[in-house]
Amino acid sequence: MIQPAPAYDPAPLDPRTAPAPRYGTASLSDVLPAVTAGLGVTTGPPTGLDLAPADRVCVFLVDGMGWELLRAHPDEAPFLGSLLGSSLNRTGQPLTAGFPSTTATSLASVGTGLPPGAHGLAGYTVLDPASGKLMNQLRWQPWTDPHAWQPYPTVFQLADAAGVQTCQVTSPAFQHTPLTKIALSGGSFHGRLTGDERMDFAADRLGCADRTLVYTYYSELDSMGHRHGVDSDAWRGQLMMIDRLAQRLAEQLPPRSALYITADHGMIDIPFDEESRIDFDEDWELSAGVAVLGGEARARHVYAVPGAAADVFTVWSEVLGEQMWVASRDEAIAAGWFGPLVDDRVRGRIGDVVAVAREDIAVVATRTEPGESSMVGLHGSMTPVEQLVPLLEVRS
Length: 396
Prior knowledge:
Layout: H1 31-38, E1 56-62, H2 67-71, H3 78-84, E2 95-96, H4 103-112, H5 116-119, E3 125-128, E4 133-136, H6 146-149, H7 155-161, E5 165-170, H8 178-183, E6 188-191, H9 195-206, E7 212-218, H10 220-228, H11 233-250, E8 257-263, E9 268-269, E10 277-279, H12 284-287, E11 290-296, E12 299-304, H13 309-320, E13 324-328, H14 329-334, H15 344-347, E14 353-357, E15 362-364, H16 370-373, E16 377-378, H17 384-387, E17 388-389, E18 391-395
Parallel strand pairs: 1-7, 1-8, 5-6, 5-7, 10-15
Antiparallel strand pairs: 2-17, 3-4, 8-18, 9-16, 11-12, 12-14, 13-14
Helix pairs in contact: 9-11, 10-11
């Protein structure tokens, strides 16, 4: 008698197999420590990222310009594309953004030179254990003391104290934000409205002293990706603008300068269908036992009601484990997702369960997060299109 085949019972993804960021050797948190080491200033533990010394350095960070997206658009970004394989580019391989691959986390990693487990901005939204409320670390809502939330000095502050002429050149709107205060402050701040003004002013500041460190930033590519998607004409138009701005800055570099062009994350377009966008607010299984849903659609922090963490982990693993890496807090920390060490003050900000998309899906919340749920382009996960970012180099 022929026995029936056993029912197919696929195993969930093992969180230990997720491609954790390369902290300490090739992540965003290594960039400024490597830069300042070339300026003769120690701003943290040694990093394995090798950058040649330069007297004057500008770091130009483009929000949302992932490595894979840049490589896929050579016609829109011919100047940046030429740097991908240039002999001048010592850093031709991509960096990892850190986890999650989201703006608040990445900018804090850049500015402090620390992984998320140390600086503590461990997601787009995370639970504040002291208040029990969900904290949006980009908008800084609800208000909490920035320096208690992130107590470490920035690389800019340490470099400025060591005699390096240090400044940030970005939108005037960012001057007094808490995120700027705890991640991107040190030296002087110069608000400039347009990209052209920022490039010209950054180049001018590079020539003001023998040792200078300038940071400049452009956000509109990310905005177009969220609103229209990375497969849109609006997104491609912004990439063309960025390519022109980068070339404008590169052509004005004073002698003995290095320009590094990088990004905080990539992005992926997720279709608007029930299979691709799972609505937490309408899913009784996923919401059972959950007190607060944090993070973002591609990288969720899930906070359970007391005593329900194990059950929530089981359900999320059963429902989503073939498409997402689902880990307990301890598993995510042990896997190094947030860095080699996680400060005690940060542990409670990490979800009881952390769910990270491997496939082209998103866990949205249409009632509680209507704006975020309507976005076309998303990010946050550890897939290459979201996690890998460029570090392109121009020298004069």
